[in-house]
Each structure stands twice: as C-alpha cells, then as structure tokens.
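Lab notes, practical 5.
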Amino acid sequence: MIPREILKKIRQIEIRTNRIVTESLAGAYHSVFKGQGMNFDEVREYTPGDDVRSIDWNVTARMNHPFIKKFVEERELTVMLLVDVSGSGLFGSRGQSKRELAAEIASVLAFSAIRNSDKVGLILFTDEVEKFIPPRKGRSHVLRVIREVLFFEPKRRGTDLNVALEFLLRVQAHKAVAVVISDFITAEGGGALPRATQTALRQANRKHDVVAVQITDHHELRLPALGRLTLEDAETGEVVELNTDSTSSRDAFALRQEKQLNELARQFRSSRIDSIQLRTNEPYSAALGQFFEVREKRRLRG
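Output from the prediction step:
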C-alpha cells in the first residue's frame, strides 16, 4: 500500500498541473504535437486543385478517369519521458528540488497527452537505465508515472544520457515525442554536452521528435554570499571549497555558468533540438506556453 503522504504529494501535483493544462496548454499541445504520419482513408474522384502526386493510377486506369488517394493524419501520439534521476537532481534551494520540478513537468506533459488520447511512457536514467514503464493511456497510468519520477530510488548517482537515448531507440519502434528532462550536468561535459552525447541526441532526433527540458536552480547559476563553503558533488563525490564572500569569485562563477548555459543552448540548436530552460524558483507555465507558441508559429510557416 502506498503511504498516505506520498498519495497526498501526488494528488497535489495532479491538481496543480491539471489546472495549468486546462487553462493554458491543452489546445497548444494538440496543435504543436501533431500526428506522426498519414493513414490511407479512401479513394475519391480527382477535382481540380488536388495534388497530382496523390493520383491512384490503378483505380484511374480501371475507371477511365482520375481518382486520388485520400489520407488522414494519424492523430495518436506516443510521448516518451526520459527523466534524469541522478544525484544532482536532489538539489534545490527554495523549497523545491530539481527532481520535484521534473515531476511537475512530466505531469503537465502526461496529462496533456492523455487528454488527447495519446500514450505516455517513462524512462528513468542515471548512468544506466534504472526503470522503464511502457507507453499506456489513462489517469491511473499517469499517476504511476508521477509517483515514479518523485519517489523512485536509483541505484546509481551519475549521469549518462547516451545510455537512455540508446535504450529509447531500441524500445520505441515508431516515431514518438521524446522529452528529456534533466539538468544536463555531466562530469565529462562540465556544463556542455560531450561529443558522444551530441551525436546520440542527433541520432535520436532523426527518428523521434526530441525536446530538451533543462532544469536548474538559481544557486547553481549565482552563488549566495555565505562565507567559506565546502561543497560536495552529488554525482562524483568531489569536494571543493569556495569563498563566497568574494564578489569577484561570485561574479567569475556566474559568468562561467552563463557561458556554459549559452554553449548548451547552442549545442541544442545545432542538433535541431527544441529546448526549454526552467528554474526551480520560477513559475514554469509561462516558459512552457512560450515553447508551444514558438513551435506553433514555426509549424504554420511551413
């Protein structure tokens, strides 16, 4: 039996995210994440203005006048959530950890999906795939997804996005919307993506529609003035000492973090991957709404 406090937390997230979906994002989701293919519907007579490439030559030959194949959009989608549950996700300085924000974003996308009769699947990863929940529909399934993102206890602490993307390509045969929710902090990358990860993202994006959701805490971007601090890396265990009383040290740290964020955004763009940047201390609905708006404008342009 699931403990009452866990059920309460899941219910709170459901209520909060359902309101955002209802008020802001339901229509945007439907417009932006269109069907992933076209299904044959029927053959009908050709009318002026129809695309001649759609002519069914076999039927046309039998009937002695032109007919075309009519296709309809394949509406049903699969949304795969790839959620980073490595050690760095436990950090949060304003009452919400990155892991908790990841659960809310997963909830928003999952409830948007099931409102459109789409399937939702989940891959939890560290430097290995820790858990896989195959895509399904329904509220009870989404609540399970939220519970796993919030409370799953991983065996490992590191991060290896390549492993998760390779697993996605193996288990998801048809094109899906693959949303990677992570802080994208890796020991190798130092704030930017290693070359192997960039390659893996491009490969995944050729088959699927990959969206990157980067979650950071504002104290990871700018240090508070708290004197000398001893910090331990949640993934590698490395310990460093910092003097946060020094304005120049804080400014240098902030500049370095900003450069790394800009480089990561550039890498996403070069891989043709849409990205969303979220902070644990800021409301996320506006950022999600802007993301859907930009994608919709691009879709309408062509």
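Observations recorded by the TA: DSSP finds nine helices and ten strands in the chain. The longest strand covers residues 37-45.
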